[in-house]
Amino acid sequence: MRKKIFWFALLCTTLFSALLVNATTSHAAEKTYTIGTDITYAPFDFQGSNGQYTGIDIDLIKAIAKEEHMKIQLKPVGFNAAVQAVEANQMDGVIAGMTITNARKQQFDFSDPYYYAGEVMAVAKNSKVKSLSDLRGKKVALKVGTQGAAYAKSLQKKYGFKITEFDQSNDMYNDVITGNSAAAFEDYPVMAYGIQNGIKLKIVTKPAQGGNYGFAVKKGENPELLAKFNKGLKALKKNGQYNKIIAKYLGKSSVAKATATAQKQDNSLWGLVKQNKSALGNGLLQTLYLTIISIVLATIFGVIIGLMQVVPAKWANWTSSTLIYIFRGMPLLVLALFIYIGVPNLTGNKISAFVAGIITLTLNEGAYTAAFVSGGITAVDGGQMEAARSLGLPYGKAMRRVILPQGIKIMIPSFINQFIITLKDTSILSVIGILELTQTGKIIIARNLQGFKVWTIVAIMYIVIITLLTWLSKAVERRINK
């Protein structure tokens, strides 16, 4: 039995090693640069009604790539995920309305500036807040890591307001619209574009403490990419293409056209489903892929570690207890970021977001599975093992033939609950840029600003899938208990 457990553990370790090796990026003769972008930062980065990512940043990097004859792969993952991925060498560069600051220059090398923007304060349309001095004692909404957030924090002590931070621009806007916060701080073109396209806010201050946007690479890395960007940017400014890109999104005619288009769209629940059925379907499939693969791997991992917890071998007991303690005690969000960002920093090998997500769910859910597997086995009366051994059965056969069949019936409800938890936990993986159902919802909201309705649709989809999974699990449970 001990030898079998050892080989099972070795097999599990080999499987995870294979996943990590699969994540290593091979360099082709002609390098393809991976560029991270934001997903909810219109008019610089957002998803259009046709499902394609668009915006000033997107059009600009594509035009520069064409001008400089270089291959790029865009990764719309969100501002924080993109920045952290570049720091971890998961991506080669980031273009996401990123303001060039002295603090960021410690971590990144920046291109020549490609846009200048000032910071403004916006409030709800019916708000009585008209200036910064009206914020004393009130709460302000900010987006994590942005220049708007930095500007607001520099004013906090002087004007005495409190701060709440969000990962997505739309969440920040809605916190002000619903009255939870009195104001939000944002780059002027972003806020102006959003208001023109339906956000129920108004700007009450003039642009201040502006900053230059720049394309960034990790400090000391990819100098050739930075040089190509600068060269391409100069060429676009010289031939007039740069001005055309800016005018496309910030010119008066384009704003009016975008507003008119937004007003014509059917924003009912069913209308939103029809408009976004392809994106929602793809997000749902990604969620199911993550869930199914993770459930299978987590069950294998959990059963092996759970059995190691109960065998009469101290090294196996100690190893199992340690693994359960670490992976069950670590928050899933932290574990995901550690695997996706931390491991590449330690090993120098890239890990795809999908593989990192699978490993994260397998380790976390597997630790919980191991705990109830060992609990289910120990719940079987100890006399059962004694009786089996007294009849001459070796330990391994007694475990397989006598203990496990009884223990499995005890474990079934816990397995069902863990399946459902795994499905719901996939939503946390949006933090590393996996385009599952929750991340898809964020992207759709960034385009149409229908937060309540889109989250209602996403919630219904989760409930339907969880209900079907529960029915299936219950059917399996009834079949086993017959």
Automatic annotation (TrEMBL):
It is a multi-pass membrane protein. Residues 284-473 form the ABC transmembrane type-1 domain. The chain crosses the membrane at residues 288-311, 323-343, 454-472. Keywords: Cell membrane, Membrane, Signal, Transmembrane, Transmembrane helix, Transport. It holds the Pfam family BPD_transp_1. Coiled coil: none annotated. It is found in: Cell membrane. Residues 1-28 form the signal peptide. Its main location: membrane. The keyword Acetylation does not apply. InterPro entries: AA_ABC_transptr_permease_3TM, ArtM/GltK/GlnP/TcyL/YhdX-like, Iontro_rcpt_C, MetI-like, MetI-like_sf, Solute-binding_3/MltF_N. The keyword Transmembrane helix applies. PROSITE patterns: ABC_TM1. PANTHER family: ABC TRANSPORTER MEMBRANE SPANNING PERMEASE-GLUTAMINE TRANSPORT, MEMBRANE COMPONENT OF AMINO ACID ABC TRANSPORTER. Belongs to the binding-protein-dependent transport system permease family. This is Amino acid ABC transporter substrate-binding protein/permease. The lineage of its organism: Bacteria, Bacillati, Bacillota, Bacilli, Lactobacillales.
